[in-house]
Amino acid sequence: MKETRKMTSYKIVFNPYQKEWQRQYRKTAKYHEWRTKALKKQSIKAKELKQQVVNHYGGQCACCGIKEICFLSIDHINNDGYLEKIGKINRPSGYFMYKKIITKGCPKDLQIMCFNCNVAKQHNGGECPHKTK
């Protein structure tokens, strides 16, 4: 964004009048009402996509079998999730992450794990303590 803002075309398109108008508009009730509705719609869509991804990968934690969707998360089977971070400033999360997984055709190198098993796997050298016992 810093480089973009330095460009002449950006300065012409987003002149000071427009910037001030946007600042004032974002303080209005109309904007807050629209923003609330938009975020609610996006949240619903993200939940639908998450449900779709979870159902594709079996609907439960691959380790302990928990089925409560609010506890479930995406896990890289080969512990190579860090490779997606290399050279990127932001990684997709939520709606965009589920959309990316669906677009890729639900890759086989992912699985569903509950958050506890996922974090325990990370801190236990790549294997969940449930499996080592």
Secondary structure layout:
Blueprint: H1 2-6, H2 8-13, H3 16-25, H4 29-56, E1 72-76, H5 95-103, E2 110-114, H6 115-123, H7 129-132
Antiparallel strand pairs: 1-2
Helix pairs in contact: 4-5
Plain-language structure description:
By secondary structure, this protein is mostly helical. The chain has one domain (2-132). 53% of the residues lie in helices and 8% in strands. It has helices at 2-6, 8-13, 16-25, 29-56, 95-103, 115-123, 129-132; strands at 72-76, 110-114.
Shape: elongated
Which bin fits the share of residues in helices? 40-55%
Major sheet: arrangement of strands: 1-2
User: What's the N-to-C terminus distance?
Assistant: 49 Å
Counting helices, strands and paired strands, the structural category is mainly alpha
Output the number of helix runs: 7
Computed over alpha carbons, the radius of gyration is 21 Å
How confident overall, as mean pLDDT?
A: 85
Please provide a brief summary of the model.
This protein is mostly helical.
Labels describing this entry:
7 helices; mainly alpha; two-stranded antiparallel sheet; 2 strands; about 130 residues
